[in-house]
Amino acid sequence: MKCLILGSYPPQESKRDYEFYYPNAINNFWKILADIAKIKLRYTKKSELKTPDAKNKAVEERFKIMQALNAGVQNVGKIIIRKGNSSLDTNIEIIEEHDILSIIESHKELERILLAGFSAKNSTAKSFLRYLRKKGIPYEIEKIQPEEKFHINVFGRKIECVILNSTSTAGRIEYKELLKQFKKYLG
Predict the structure, then answer these.
(1) Which pairs from 51-57 meet CB under 8 Å and 24+ separation?
(2) CA count, 13 A, side-chain hemisphere, 96
(3) Integer Cα distance of 49 and 112 in angstroms
(4) How far is CA 134 from the centre of its chain?
(5) Which end of the chain is more exposed for a tag (fewer CB within 10 A), N or C?
(6) What is the 3-state secondary structure (H, E, C) of 69-124?
(7) How far apart are alpha carbons 151 and 33 in whole angstroms?
(8) Given 3-state DSSP classes, what are the helix, strand and coil percentages for the chain, each rounded to the nearest 5?
(9) How many angstroms separate the CA atoms of 139 and 46, rounded?
């Protein structure tokens, strides 16, 4: 795993089409990664994800994409409080984070962390920066904006961190622009 892609937290359960990262079929995340990996996604519509077998196959094809890109995926949030049924980062509060440092430590080959989403209070980028502060890991960042880079030094290694736009369809960024951003750091 050369690249770790972080998200904030999965959508509420009724909006999950399969049990894996970025489990909402309307989110552009897996379409973008599939395009970069040049792998055709077969299971992309809610109507195709009705059976347990189809859901398992959807997870398998997404895992193959991660392998092709030498990428891993994790959420910053482990435990959250959610306002209503919303999946927006503006309507979650992260109570406990996943142990991202243990992922970094166990993957000596890791070179880059991509932070998908930056504008909301509990966006991936802002949540990850809070996590770093909580863990006492210094970083310097000019501005929290798309394609802003900063580095962290952990376990004797320098890891590049890059802020990208969210792949959520609730965002206003066109697919072509999202693809270009992600391809620059994954392709």
Answers:
(1) 55/17, 55/18, 55/19, 56/18
(2) 4
(3) 32
(4) 20
(5) C
(6) HCEEEEECEEEEEECCCCCCHHHEEEEEECCHHHHHHHCCCCCEEEEECCCCCCCH
(7) 23
(8) 35, 20, 45
(9) 40
Bridge partners (DSSP) of residue 152 are 159
Domains in the chain: boundaries: 3-186
Q: Mind listing the pLDDT tens digit for each residue in 8-45?
A: 887 778 788 888 888 888 889 999 999 999 999 988 88
What average pLDDT does the segment 68-88 reach?
86
Q: Compute CA distances 142 → 31, 137, 175, 182, 184, whole Å.
A: 30, 17, 26, 21, 20
Question: Which one-letter DSSP state was computed for residue 145?
Answer: S
Taking residue 149's Cβ as centre, other Cβ atoms within 10 Å add up to 12
Confidence of residue 125 (pLDDT cuts 50, 70, 90): very high
Cβ-in-10-Å burial (0-12, 13-18, 19+) of 103 comes to: middle
- CA-nearest of 165, 118, 117 to 144 is 118
Element (H, E) at 159: strand 157-164
Per-residue pLDDT averaged across 81-99, rounded?
80
Helix 52-69, helix 29-37: angle, nearest 10: 50
